[in-house]
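Progress report, Aim 2. The chain analyzed during this reporting quarter is listed below.
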Amino acid sequence: MLAMRTYEYHHIISFEETNLVGNVYYANHILWQGRCREMFIREYAPDILTELSQDLALITLRVSCEYLAELFAFDQILIRMRLGTIKQNRIPMLFEYWRITQDREELVARGEQEIACMRRQGEKLIPTAIPSSLWTALQPYQIS
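Predicted structure tokens for the chain:
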């Protein structure tokens, strides 16, 4: 069986991402999904950054996270992102959060996010096709 290709974003948790008890505040998992997505675009479809400053908009339609274990300051995590099944202008992304230690990886959360490609026309947002450079960049990460 072939291993599914994932985009990986490495992160070390800082004190500012924890609460008074010392564990990671749950909303940070959602922030990390966004950062992972942005780093993917920066690395594989950087021209999209220019389009975003013009009329392209990547609108988040849905986001979720299932928490399996707590994280703490200075935990090293690896967020693995892969692509779900694209439908028209919608891009579903699936995330796994892994705590990395010297001898193992522990799955600590799973998340999902769906974005839609839109174009600004005056005050309106109009659905648009996924830009070709982004489409090409995403294909190796698609679930078969």
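The beta strands are 7-12, 56-67, 76-83, 90-100, 105-121, 124-127. Helices lie at 27-44, 47-52, 132-138. These observations will guide the mutagenesis work planned for the next reporting period.
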